[in-house]
Amino acid sequence: MNLPEVVKDLVDAHNNSDSTAFANCFSESATVFDEGKNYTGKKEIKSWIEKASKEYNAIMKPIEFEGNAEKAGLKAEVSGNFPGSPLVLTYDLEFNGNHIQSLEIN
Predict the structure, then answer these.
(1) Beta bridge partners of 54
(2) How confident is the model at residue 103 (pLDDT cuts 50, 70, 90)?
(3) SS3 annotation, 38-102
(4) CA–CA gap between residue 16 and residue 69 (Å, rounded)
């Protein structure tokens, strides 16, 4: 699967529980929407993923990707310490250059 570099970096950071590297995939004004909540800016995104990594210990395995330089959709099998694991989740991404501007997880 041919993933953009920033998406590869995001998956690697997620799977290594590296909240700093994960947050660095995003622009300064980026937003993340997950489990009914919005997180804005690198600091909030870093705190969110740090907490989620500790709580769920999840691993993301990309299974499908479609997109262009502006928008993309990633489907990934996510397994970890949560009910229903593993689940297939959809990650709707918008890019700002080489960074993620928005991410919505469904």
Answers:
(1) none
(2) very high
(3) EEEHHHHHHHHHHHHHHHHCCEEEEEEEEECCCEEEEEEEEECCCCCCCEEEEEEEEEECCEEEE
(4) 26
